[in-house]
Amino acid sequence: MSNKVRTRFAPSPTGYMHIGNLRTALYAYLFAKANDGDFILRIEDTDRNRYVPDAVDFINRTLAAAHIVPDEGPEIGGAFGPYVQSQRQEIYQKYADALIENGFAYRCFCSPDEGHTAASFSGYDRTCRDLSPAVIQQHLDAGDSFVIRQKMPLNGATTFHDMVHGNITIQNDELEDQVLIKRDGMPTYNFANVIDDHLMQVTHIIRGVEFITSTPKHVLLYQSFGWDPPAFVHLPPVMGKNEDGSVSKLSKRHGATSFAELVAMGYLPEAITNYVALLGWSPKSNQELFSMDEMAKVFALDGLSKSSAVFDYAKLNWFNSEYFKQMSDADFAQAALPFAGELTDELQVKWPYLAALLKPRINRYGEIADQIAFFRTLPEYSSELFSNKRNKVTPEVSAAILPAVCAALEPLADWTPDTINTALHGYIDGCGLKMGTVMWPLRIALSGQKVTPGGVTELLYLLGKEICLKRLQKGIAILANI
RNA sequence: GGCGCGUUGGUCAAGUGGUUAAGACACCGCCCUUUCACGGCGGCUUCAUGGGUCCGAAUCCCAUACGCGUCACCA
What we know:
By secondary structure, the protein is mostly helical. Helix content is about 45%, strand content about 10%. The chain binds one RNA strand through strand 6, strand 7, helix 5, strand 11 and strand 12.
């Protein structure tokens, strides 16, 4: 049982889930599941200045929405708790003391404001590295506050293996005597993560590349304790495309950066995770549409890419529209309704019918309001809109067609797609014009735009007889001036 | 700046010494068609640059350039 795969997602509670973070969580989850392992959620809240109320709840809700379900964590518990770092303070203290005991760490009494920066090597100048026991005791007796620092080797190099990048070596003299326990008694990330990953028996650390350069410090810590380090998997960042064509780490100026924002824009969680999974990972096959279960079957580390990927809305749109097509009309209608804005009474009744027309035509729910705005208010338009080369329509031709269609529609007692269609076809068959030629001017007069959700029959039905006749008259009036 | 990592078309990418360098999105064109969409067909554009090694290099080596990361008592 000891070689069961265990991965973890260890966010700090900021109340925000960046796309890149979501992807990290997703990979850690998928890798665990692909290997019948466990996925752990751990909250890294050792920075008290950054604490955001309800952030843990937010993380739980986000993971749930994305169908990433932890096997262990603050809410579900598990054999290795607590899973919130601020509740593990004594544990870190104990291990830090052991390090001091064995000469791998030391108390540093320097004030953070004194500027103890070394000139010849990286970071802290190591003033307190070799204090005599007597001096240390003096400080302790005086009640001086201190931090605990890691005692880095002065020479040599540290090498570790990364499963996506291969072996990485860093000279030890590049390493600072980093702080392990802060003045407030809390551990730093670089310390807590080592202790917790070992104690929680994490086998694979999956995290962003930003941690790659501090990994040697972690490895040294594992060595000091005599522990075997877990496998390391460092993921490249998710980028955004700038106005000038350059790319940089996905941020606000690129639009949405969080899972929650994308959902608010009307993207389906399933589509987001599917797309994000493929941003930096590729399966052995050419399959692109994956359910979570399918991904959990085929996910493998060797499909991860080394280089960063640019977040592309065009591709996300495609994924989302594919997921829309898989939805039933009823489910879509229900889920889309909140995005429709205020509906006329007519449309409220006919919403399921309208929604079915919208489903194959939009990329995200957020596009709905714009698409259906013309139902409520006919946009201003000019007679030029009536021109369409493809269907051989001109404003003149339109001027002849509109009144005739009005006449054909007017007598209809029953206003259903069927009766409307029959009346329309009756007219078209009689007049000798092509269907497209007749439909074009109708669409323009009905909607004031070239592109509409649904065909003319559907528009007529949805608008209702009275409004249709009015809009057709309006079209005739506009055409009268040419 | 030091150190580390990266670089296949507009974007995601397959590829691990011999391929016509897959596939997807986007874009363009055609077909279908009651517009749009859907669907079908086709096209466009790529191995950052320069040196090696080799019969042969996107694949191996070395430089250069560019990009990203890191250098906190943040994670």
